[in-house]
Amino acid sequence: MNEKLKVAIELQKRYSNITFRKFTDKKDQLIIEAIQGKSFQGVYFDAKRLREIVHETYDGHIDGFLAGAVPYDPPAHDVVSPEWLSKQLTDYEIRSKLVAKDLALSKSYFSSHLNGLKPMSNNVQAMYFYYFKSK
Q: Is this prediction's pTM over 0.85?
């Protein structure tokens, strides 16, 4: 792999969280697939644009390949935010004290998420999401 291609691949990873996977199908046709993960900048591409990115990156370096794409599919719990938590408490008419008790959390820990004072990890977002989904 030449240096120009390495730089192009690294730039896609750094700025758009796009990785590439090479594999062959049953007919020994080379397929290069662009896979987009969660972007810190919040910029996401559809499958058509990801296939174009594969060609922009690999054309001139590798001949005779097909381009595939796997767009970013956000997990269901990505909707969880302090505002979302507040809305759930109102919609389900649940007090924050009960949520903390049900989830074996301290009231202050839950309150810090509810007020946006402490960031929520993916696991914590999922915990809250599925807690309210089960109600």
A: no
